[in-house]
Amino acid sequence: MKSMTGYGYCNYQDENYLLSVEIKGYNNRFLEINVNQPPFLSPLESWIRESVSLRFSRGKIEVNIRFKEYNASVTVNVNRGAVEAYSKAIAALSGEFNLDEKPSLQVLLGLEGVLDIEKTRDDERYRKLIEPALRTALEQFAAERDREGQHTEKDILSNLDRIEILVNKVSAFVPAMEKEFQENLRARFKELLGDEVDENRILTETAVLLVKYTIAEELSRLEAHLAEFRAETERNSSPGKKLDFLCQEVNREINTIGSKTPNLEVSRAVVDMKDALENIREQLRNVE
Fold first, then answer.
1. Which domain holds residue 256?
2. Among 93, 101, 149, 231, which residue's CB has the most CB atoms within a 10 Å radius?
3. What is the pLDDT confidence band of residue 5, given thresholds at 50, 70 and 90?
């Protein structure tokens, strides 16, 4: 079992570049990946997303990448059209106001658009530089999700044990409850009909009402759901969605048991089962 929350970080710096990769995880019903990076790394976004999605199936995951290059190769081009336009404008201005000054090279180079500076970008080289840091951050992130998931699983199984104990307790009451139901029904028939009670009719009516009010079937389904819940935690490393569904089924059976029997002990057990189930559902919000 894995948690959806976690954190991973890797930082590297040398004389040529500074790189950091930070990964954060939050609860989410589905897999949502957000990548924040410098614009020039945009061509690598699909590769980053794939690297994350191959390892995780659920949760909101933020990947933050900082990359600064100190000695990047650049290409400088002179925009001669811009130089010509600036020179004509300055000459016209000088003539209009009788100025002798001519623009120096330093002035011209400082004007917007005169120089076009382009850094040489090599996407494959950037990918090779980022890949080790991304892998390290993902490993840390996964390890933290695993550690937190182990604690969560322990708490969930503890509450599952609690529900199973309560189910066994309720099951032990079923024979006595059915017997009490039969005796009460027989007493009502005698009260209404006296000694003219038809024993066959009592048995027939009792059978019909037992089908309606007995909780044996609900207990059987509840035990099956609990067994499937436990099996899913053992065979599936990312059981969150399936366990969410099973919790709904467990809750339905518990509610039905509570509504079908007036027995005080059973009612108390139902309240305790609901409390344990709510604890499980709360923990499952953070399970992948």
1. 147-284
2. 149
3. very high
Q: Are strands 74-78 and 115-119 parallel, antiparallel or unpaired?
A: antiparallel
Mean pLDDT across the stretch 4-33? 94
Q: Give the C-alpha separation, 262 to 217, whole Å.
A: 17
| Residue 237 DSSP class | S
Is 153 inside any structural domain?
yes
Q: Is residue 1, in this structure, part of any structural domain at all?
A: no
Report how far residue 40's alpha carbon sits from residue 150's, in angstroms, rounded to the nearest whole number: 39
Residue 74: exposure state from Cβ atoms within 10 A (0-12, 13-18, ≥19): exposed
- Give the containing element (helix H, strand E) for 82: helix 80-96
Which tens digits make up the pLDDT trace of 162-187?
A: 999 999 999 988 887 777 777 777 77
Let me know whether 47 and 89 are in one domain: no
* 260 and 154 in a common domain: yes
Tokens 């410098």 belong to 38
Instruction: Tell me whether residue 212 is in a domain.
Output: yes
